[in-house]
Design goal:
By secondary structure, this protein is an alpha+beta fold. It is built from 4 helices and 10 strands; from the N terminus they run H-H-E-E-E-E-E-H-E-E-H-E-E-E. Helices cover about 20% and strands about 30% of the residues. It starts with 15 loop residues before the first helix and ends with a strand.
Length: about 210
């Protein structure tokens, strides 16, 4: 069973800049693909970059920052999301703005609130809801589990990425294995001085 939307098919797939941007913004693109939407990095007429997700109902979501997305995602100061008509972009609605002067600025660069807002849109063909969980095992055998509960797909995949980043960026773990995206929902294994952490996404049965 397919769990992630297909990649876009265009003549930029071999372009080094597109490849770099697609990789750099994978943490934005991947949650939207697991929600079932074909998502890509696009270039505007003025050379700016943004992430575009096709909602399959004649509208699309455009994700940027204060202006264009920088090539280096660490330079993002917050996120903007606009839903617009695919054929008439002047018909649009601002969904989210966590840039320094935006109404959601208190969320900063966190992806979870952004994805939760997009997940809440009334669009056809919602993907299944998901559960993010983690198991932490110490060298002497003690273990504990945590779960985020049942969430919509883009939110859950963003949470998986955030939990994984916290392990490697703040807690000294290194990622030793991750399930390829084409093989199902994300799962990754981390290690730190004999401590093992497993973070996984599973489908909810609600």
């Amino acid at each position: 069973m397919t769990t992630i939307a297909a990649l876009s098919d265009h003549n930029r797939l071999n372009d080094p800049l597109w490849q770099r941007l697609f990789h750099n913004y994978g943490h934005v693109i991947t949650p939207l693909r697991y929600a079932g939407w074909v998502t890509d990095v696009e270039t505007g007429s003025g050379g700016e970059f943004f992430v575009r997700a096709d909602l399959r109902d004649g509208t699309e979501v455009i994700i940027a920052s204060e202006h264009s997305l920088p090539v280096d995602p660490t330079e993002v100061s917050g996120w903007t999301a606009v839903r617009q008509d695919t054929e008439n972009p002047s018909t649009h609605t601002v969904l989210y703005d966590s840039t320094p002067n935006g109404p959601q600025r208190h969320h900063g660069t966190s992806l979870i609130p952004l994805m939760a807002r997009i997940d809440s849109l009334d669009v056809p063909g919602h993907a299944p809801r998901l559960i993010v969980s983690a198991t932490h095992t110490a060298p002497y055998g003690a273990s504990h589990n945590q779960t985020a509960g049942i969430e919509d797909p883009a939110t859950a995949i963003a949470r998986f990425a955030e939990w994984s980043w916290r392990l490697t960026g703040h807690e000294g773990y290194r990622r030793v294995w991750q399930r390829p995206e084409q093989e199902g929902y994300p799962m990754a294994l981390f290690e730190n001085a004999g401590h093992i952490a497993t973070v996984r996404v599973t489908r909810s049965n609600d």
